C-alpha cells in the first residue's frame, strides 16, 4: 500500500530519532512492498526560529493531508525564556487540538531483558502489559473560566473541570474497544466520591458497558489507582480516564519500566490522521551527540502500523526485531552502565534493520 507520513522532527534529539524511524520504515516498505512517502514539517522551537510560530500553517496542512504524523520531540533551554503562550510546547498542544486528537494511548510493557532497570521488584513487574487511554482534549486543561480574581488577601484562582456527555462517551468507547481486542478487562478511573464530572463519567461507563458484554470492567478511584499501579500493576489491562488523571497516571506507569527511552505513544482522532511519538522529551543534554535511544520512536512506529495503517504483521515484525536486539544485549547509553559497549543511534537502528 501507499501511505503519506508527515514527519515533524522538532527539537533536541527529535531529528535523530526521526531519522532512525524513516530508515526503518523504508526497510519495512522494501520488505513488504509498501510505499511510504515522507513530508517534513517544522514544529516547536525549530518552527519558532524559522517562522516565529511554534505551529506554522504549512505544518498543519501537511499533517491534515497525511495518513499519519510522526513527531520527534519539542522544546529545549533555548526557548525557555519565552512567555508561556509562545513556547515550543504550545505547538504540540495546538496540533492536538487542531487534529482533534482526543484519545491518547500509552502502552506500558516490560521487556524481560530490561527488567533490571525497573525500580520495582521482579515479581511485581513480571508480565506487566497495560494500556492507558487518556482523554486529551477536554477537562480541566481547557475548561472556561480559567482566571485570577481579586487581589491581595482576597485573590483567588479558578480552573474549570467540565466534560460533555459526548466527550466522555467517545473516549470510554475507545477504552472498551481496546479492552475487547486485548485481554477483555477495562478499569475506569475517576474521583466519583468527590467530583460531579466523575459521577457523570461513571454513569456513562455503565451505559456504554452494555454494548461490550464480553468486556469485564470496574470503577476505581484515582488515588487507589495510583497505589495499585505500584502495588500490583499486573491487575490492569486497559485503563481509561480523563485528561488530568491520565496525565499523572501515565507518567507514573511509565516509570514502572524504568526505561523512558523505550516507551511509545499514539494520539488518535475520530477520522483524521493519528499522531505517533515517543513519550520522552527532547533530551537537550544529549542532543546532537548521536547517542539517543531510537527504540521509543521505533516502538511508536509499531503503533502507527497497527492503528493507522492496519498492518499487524508488519507491526509484529518490527516489535520482534526490537525484542531481538535487546535479547542479543545491544544497548544504547541510557540502557547500560558499561558505556564502552554502548551503541550509537545509527548502530542501534542498523541492528533493528538487520533483525527485521
Ligand atoms: P519534557 O519536558 O519534554 O517532558 P523532560 O525534560 O521531562 O522532557 P527528557 O527530555 O525526556 O525529559 O529527558 C529526561 C532524561 O532522559 C534526560 O537526561 C535525557 O537525556 C534522557 N533521555 C530521554 N529520552 C532519551 C532517549 N531517547 N535516549 C537516551 N536518553 C534519553
Ligand atoms: Mg521537561
From TrEMBL:
The keyword Protein biosynthesis does not apply. Signal peptide: none annotated. GO terms for biological process: L-leucine biosynthetic process. SUPFAM superfamilies: Isocitrate/Isopropylmalate dehydrogenase-like. SMART domains: Iso_dh (SM01329). Its cofactor is Mn(2+); Mg(2+). The record marks 141, 191 as: Important for catalysis. Keywords: Amino-acid biosynthesis, Branched-chain amino acid biosynthesis, Cytoplasm, Leucine biosynthesis, Magnesium, Manganese, Metal-binding, NAD, Oxidoreductase. Catalyzes the oxidation of 3-carboxy-2-hydroxy-4-methylpentanoate (3-isopropylmalate) to 3-carboxy-4-methyl-2-oxopentanoate. The product decarboxylates to 4-methyl-2 oxopentanoate. Homodimer. Belongs to the isocitrate and isopropylmalate dehydrogenases family. LeuB type 1 subfamily. This is 3-isopropylmalate dehydrogenase. It comes from Halalkalibacter krulwichiae. The gene is leuB.
Amino acid at each position: 500500500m501507499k501511505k503519506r507520513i508527515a514527519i515533524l522532527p522538532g527539537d533536541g534529539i527529535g531529528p535523530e530519532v526521526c531519522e532512525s524511524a524513516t530508515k526503518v520504515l523504508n526497510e519495512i516498505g522494501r520488505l513488504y512492498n509498501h510505499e511510504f512517502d515522507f513530508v517534513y514539517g517544522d514544529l516547536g522551537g525549530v518552527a519558532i526560529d524559522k517562522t516565529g510560530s511554534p505551529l506554522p500553517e504549512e505544518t498543519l496542512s501537511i499533517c491534515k493531508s497525511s495518513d499519519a504524523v510522526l513527531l520527534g520531540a519539542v522544546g529545549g533551554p533555548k526557548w525557555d525564556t519565552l512567555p508561556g503562550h509562545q513556547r515550543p510546547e504550545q505547538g504540540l498542544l495546538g496540533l492536538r487540538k487542531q487534529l482533534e486528537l482526543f484519545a491518547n494511548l500509552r502502552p506500558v510493557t516490560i521487556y524481560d531483558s530490561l527488567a533490571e532497570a525497573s525500580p520495582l521488584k521482579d515479581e511485581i513487574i513480571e508480565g506487566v502489559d497495560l494500556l492507558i487511554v487518556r482523554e486529551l482534549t477536554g477537562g480541566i486543561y481547557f475548561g472556561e473560566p480559567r482566571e485570577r480574581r481579586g487581589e491581595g488577601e482576597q485573590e483567588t484562582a479558578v480552573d474549570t473541570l467540565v466534560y460533555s456527555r459526548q466527550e466522555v462517551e467517545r473516549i470510554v468507547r475507545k477504552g472498551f474497544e481496546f479492552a475487547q481486542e486485548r485481554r477483555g478487562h477495562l478499569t475506569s478511573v475517576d474521583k466519583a466520591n468527590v467530583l460531579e464530572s466523575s459521577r457523570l463519567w461513571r454513569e456513562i461507563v455503565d451505559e456504554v458497558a452494555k454494548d461490550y458484554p464480553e468486556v469485564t470492567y470496574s470503577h476505581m478511584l484515582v488515588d487507589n489507582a495510583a497505589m495499585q499501579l505500584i502495588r500490583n500493576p499486573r491487575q490492569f489491562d486497559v485503563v481509561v480516564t480523563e485528561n488530568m488523571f491520565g496525565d499523572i497516571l501515565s507518567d507514573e506507569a511509565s516509570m514502572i519500566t524504568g526505561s523512558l527511552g523505550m516507551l511509545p505513544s499514539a494520539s488518535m482522532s475520530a477520522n483524521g490522521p493519528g499522531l505517533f511519538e515517543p513519550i520522552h522529551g527532547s533530551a537537550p543534554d544529549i542532543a546532537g551527540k548521536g547517542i539517543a535511544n531510537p527504540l521509543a520512536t521505533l516502538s511508536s512506529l509499531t503503533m502507527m502500523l497497527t492503528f493507522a495503517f492496519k498492518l499487524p504483521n508488519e507491526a509484529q515484525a518490527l516489535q520482534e526485531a526490537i525484542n531481538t536486539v535487546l535479547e542479543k544485549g545491544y544497548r544504547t547509553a541510557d540502557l547500560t552502565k558499561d558505556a564502552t559497549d554502548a551503541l550509537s543511534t545509527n548502530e542501534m537502528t542498523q541492528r533493528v534493520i538487520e533483525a527485521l
